[in-house]
Structure formats: C-alpha cells, structure tokens
Amino acid sequence: MTKNLDPSNLCLTERGTQWLNQFKPEDKETAERLVSHLTLVSHSEFLRSIQKLIETEIGSNKDVVAIYVVRELEGQTNFFSEVCDKNGHVQALSNGNDHGSEASIANLIRNLCKTEQRLLNHPNLDKMRQKKCRTIILVDDFIGSGNRMQSFLHAFWRHASIKSWHSLKYIKFIVVAYSGMEAGIKIVKSHKINADVILERECPSFKDMPWKPKYKKEAIELCREYGKKTCKKDLPLGYKNTMGSMVFEHGCPNNVPSMFWADNKKWHALFPHRSLLSNEMSVFPQEITRQDSKLTLLNAGQKKIADSDSLSRRGEAGETVLLILALIAQGQRKQSTLSYATGLNKKDCARIVDRCIKWGFITQTKRLTSKGSAELQAAKRFKKNSKFSQLGRGKLWARIPQNGKLNPVLLG
C-alpha cells in the first residue's frame, strides 16, 4: 500500500475553506473529522478496480458473457423493447450528454469485449440467442438505495425471453459495482433475477465509523443542524438517512449528508450539486489505503494500544491484525467498518478476518476470544525494549514474517 493523501486536505482548498468557515467555532472540529474520514475514490482507482472485478468473473468460467452498463430507466421500461435503436442495437447510454461514470464504464466494456469473442458488448436478444449466452454482467459504479439497479433489473425481467431463460437456468446474472450500501445491496439481492453482487469494497457509513459513541452522536447532530441550511433539508443524513462517506472523483453520491453537496445561496457546499473541480480532485489518492492506525485506535477508544509501541512491532501485517482485534473488542464488527479501518477491499479484509477466526482470536460471529484478548492485553503492555518477543499467548507475531508483508501469510 502507498501512503494515502489525507482527505482533510479538502479543507485547505479554496472551496473547502469556504465550506468550513460556515460552521460555528465549536463545530469545526467535528466537521473536520467528518471530512478526514471520507473515502475518496479516484477515477483511475475506480476503473482499475471495476475492470479487475469483471476480469475475475469472466475468468472463472468459459461461458459466453453479455456485459451492460447500468443507467437510469423510466418506471415501466422493457429493456430490449425500448432501449434499442431502429436497427435493433441496444443503446449503451441514454440520449444527452450528462452520463457521469456511465460513459467511462461503457468505454471500458467496449475495450474489454474486443479482447475475446465470447464477450458481448450490450447485445440484443437475438445476439444472445445466437451466441448461446449464459452469463449476464451488469456494471454500475455504486449501489446506494438500490432503486436504480432494481429498476434496471425490472426492465430486463419484463421481457418474456429473459424470464424463460432464467427459469430454465440457461442464464445467470452478476451485478458488479465498485461499492454499495448494505440496505441497497439487500434490495438488489431480493430481486427475482437472483443476481450475485460483486463489490470492490463496501461503502462505510459515518454511523459505522470506528469511533467512540460520543463522536458518532456529534456527527449525526452536526449533519442534522447544518443540513437545515441546505436546499435539501429533507436529506440531512443523505438519501434514506444512510450517511454514506464515499465520494467519487466523478461525483458525490446523494447518500452522503446534504451539507457536503446541497448548494444554495445560504450554504456553500464542499461538492456543490454533487460535482468536483480540479482543486478537490487533486486530493484524491491513486489507490485506497488506511488512515493512520494510531489515530483510528484513539478515535475508537483504544488509547492504551495506540500509545504502546506494539503497532510498529512487526510491520504492516501485524498492524492490520492488531487493528482488527482492537476494533472488534470495541464492538466494531461490521465488515464495512473493518474494511475502512484497514484500507483493504472487501475480499482481502474478509480473508484476514477468516485467518483471525482460524487462529482462534475471534469467533465466527466476530467476538473476541480469550486468545484474542490475551493478544490485546500484551499489546497494551508492549514497549520497544520490552522483554516480550511475542505478543500474548496466541503468539500472533510468530505467525507473521519479519518483512510484515500481507500477501503470503494473511491473504494466500
């Protein structure tokens, strides 16, 4: 992992300074804390990860695969009847120029489909029938409320051929997105199409941040108070009150609290109308990494471990495991929380959690065991010149190589 650009640098831009100065002096610290815990996804990180997810899915089977970009559709749209041109070709994008990330995804799909004949770029039904398509991949940037993806799935489901092929198990659906919220993902999974949902990382909510309860309460109160000043008074905690904290370089989702993006004459948003300018874009890192582990532990209420020298004992690998154990000890068990804190994507974070279960540090329900507790107690006592060569009875550090690399021991 490379060193991350600090999201708090957003407050140093001209727009960020203007945004921060609108808060009362006693509220600025909380506002800065929220900004510093935004997950900023650059365009290169987004496209690179999306392509890798698709390549992984198509590499795991040898079926003919149809790939489509997800976009907004009207209520009762029948996809193959209403989105085709006069020649019967599926239109990847809607009419107009405001396509956001859809245009980039469509271009990615087009280039990917050039690499193999079995990959079909937005085929119509006749093409899928002719090529004996067995897998359909639907690609989106973000699953927030799940409404857009659900409407897209409805549009496919309205065609009799799709229903027939699905009931006969001729086709399967896979939804690929960079990220998503828990509630939206549940809605997508509940659709009759029964699609597998593949994400790079789950979207962390400010409600699920690795913070002590006091900080979470302050964050909610701040968003409610200043959300009243925006043009979206009904969305102080973001769409459906989800308090999302992920912002893409191509735009800010509306599930982020409205004080960040809902601009009007009385309130100057950090991302007005959910858009970004070059100064804000310059803060976006090329890849996602974790924040300072010591600060994360302090915010979570694990001061003794944060103040010890245990974090630097065995490099990045040991630091990651210790961070996970410390957060779980504080009741921070959500996968999205652990993924955010470690900077790992969904798949890699799950692998490390599985290793901690295998080693006996936590239970299947992510509860700390006596072994895990022993590791944390030893970590709290550890000093640079300590006589301890290993931490705790579980001998965590004996399991991790001296170079501290994550891949061989934790992700293999």
Tell me about this structure.
- By secondary structure, the protein is α/β, with parallel strands linked by helices.
- It folds into 3 domains: 7-37 and 209-281, no CATH class; 43-199, 3-Layer(aba) Sandwich (Rossmann fold), CATH 3.40.50; 293-411, no CATH class.
- The chain has 18 helices and 7 strands.
- The chain has a 5-stranded parallel β-sheet, sandwiched between helices. Strands 1-7 form a two-stranded parallel sheet.
- Helix 12 (293-300) packs parallel to helix 14.
- The longest helix has 17 residues, at 43-59.
- The protein is globular, with a radius of gyration of 23 Å.
- 43% of the residues are buried.
- Mean pLDDT is 88; it is low at 387-394 and 397-409.
Q: Count of helical segments?
A: 18
Rounded to an integer in angstroms, the radius of gyration calculated over CA atoms is 23 Å
The CATH architecture of the largest domain would be: 3-Layer(aba) Sandwich
Largest sheet, spatial ordering of strands: 3-2-4-5-6
How many domains in all?
A: 3
In CATH, the topology of the largest domain is named: Rossmann fold
What is the terminal-to-terminal distance?
Answer: 17 Å
Main sheet summary: 5 strands, parallel
Assess the beta-strand content as a share of residues.
5-15%
What percent of the residues sit in helical stretches (DSSP H or I)?
40-55%
Element order: H for helix, E for strand: HHEHEHHEHEHHEHEHEHHHHHHHH
Task: Specify the overall morphology.
Answer: globular
What's the overall average pLDDT, rounded? 88
Low-pLDDT parts are 387-394, 397-409
Q: What structural category arises from helix and sheet content? A: alpha/beta
Determine and state the CATH class of the largest domain.
Alpha Beta
How many β-strand runs?
A: 7
